[in-house]
Amino acid sequence: MSDPLIACRGLCHTYLRGTPMEAMALDGVTLEIRPGEVVAIIGPTGSGKSTLIQHFNGLLRPTAGEVRIAGEDLWAPRADRRRARQQIGLVFQFPEYQLFEETVRKDVAFGPKNLGLPAETIAARVDEALRQVGLDPGRFGDRSPFTLSGGEMRRVALAGVLAMRPSCLVLDEPTAGLDPRGKEELLERIAALHRKGMTLVLVTHSMDEAALLAGRIVVMQAGRVMLDGSPHEVFAREDDLRRIGLALPQAARLVRLLRGRGMPVGDALTIVEARQAILAAVRGMGRGAH
Question: FRET partner for 78 with CA separation of 20 to 30 A, picked from 70, 96, 178, 201?
Answer without folding.
Answer: 201
